[in-house]
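Below is how a single chain appears once it has passed through the pipeline. First comes the sequence as given, then the structure the pipeline wrote out for it. We keep one example in the README because the format questions we get most often are answered faster by looking than by reading.
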Amino acid sequence: MVLAEELAKQQRSISVAEFFEKNKHLLGFDSPTRGVITTIKEAVDNALDACEEAQVLPDIYISIKKTGTDVFRIIVEDNGPGIVPAQVPFVFGKLLYGSRFHQIRQTRGQQGIGISAAVLYAQLTSGLPTVVISRTGAKEPAHRFEIQIKIETNEPDIISQQPFEWDRIHGTRVQIEFKSTMSAKKKLLEYLKYTSVVNPHARFRVELDDESFTFERVSQEVIACPLAIQPHPHGIEFGQLKRMAAASDEKLIDFLVNGFSRVGKKIAQEMCDKSGLKQTAKVKGLSAEELKNLLAAMQSVAVPAPPTTQCLSPIGEDLIRRGLDKEFQMDFVSARAGSRPRVTQRSSGLQTGSRSCTSRVPVQSPNVSQPSTGSRTTSPSRASRWGRF
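Resulting structure:
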């Protein structure tokens, strides 16, 4: 009994920030070398998503400079819509905080972890706060923040906040300093090159100490921002259905029509009939057994596939080809996209050159070239018959 009471005194909840403080490798910060690439990737992903949502052509500036012994300063600046000042501390100073996690649509970032994980890594290795400057419009002043994360509570710690004179009309600038190395410089430039290929509408200006690189855009067409869709009846689980029902004040038939993708009144009536539930029943008052019957009925009724053309934004064959042609001086460049839009829709590019090399560039929506917490890139080589080339 005494031992149990002593153990009980030691038990407490663990914050998300505390967990990732001891498990940095889960966030891509398992080594100083990889820390630079992970930070750049997360910041660039956020910048590209923000620009697409604002319907502007991305102009992204990236700077990496050594400021001391093994300490590097990373700056990523974009021309996106900016962030409302009240939200800046939470976006950068709180893990698992974001706007895209609950939406069913294509985005590069989704979990609300990436950039705040870089803030945490900087705090752990250099002890320096992250500097964020953001402006939401020409009529609004820019604001400058110095931010860290309160490890025990996973809440933002605002070191300073003040108005700031900035020549950008709108956009966000992030400055992070942490201990690292540039031994992976070649991989970083390779990542940026492939990111430029699959984002042909973006321009990247890069400064690595005394070297400068520019990856120009080849398209002046703004990428259409994917729209969020409702969950599909065949892809939902009991726990999610129970949570949705508890938060709804609608009648059952209205809940099905308004809350799920491709469910019209006729399909909703069939689901109600198969489940043995009244169409006018309040969904919030359904028991667990009734919800299980409803779920079984929902998944047994034929429902059209979700509208993937609405929630996905494929690059397209022409832009893949132009992106490859821009970055790789080859004799032959070709691209092939899937014939039907699907959730796992992908496109692939093939290029050959006179230097006895052949390169395949697989691209899968979302439009990124490296694995991340929010999306995956897989090779389409099984589906494509490369032998004919």
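The longest strand covers residues 59-68.

See the next section for the split statistics.
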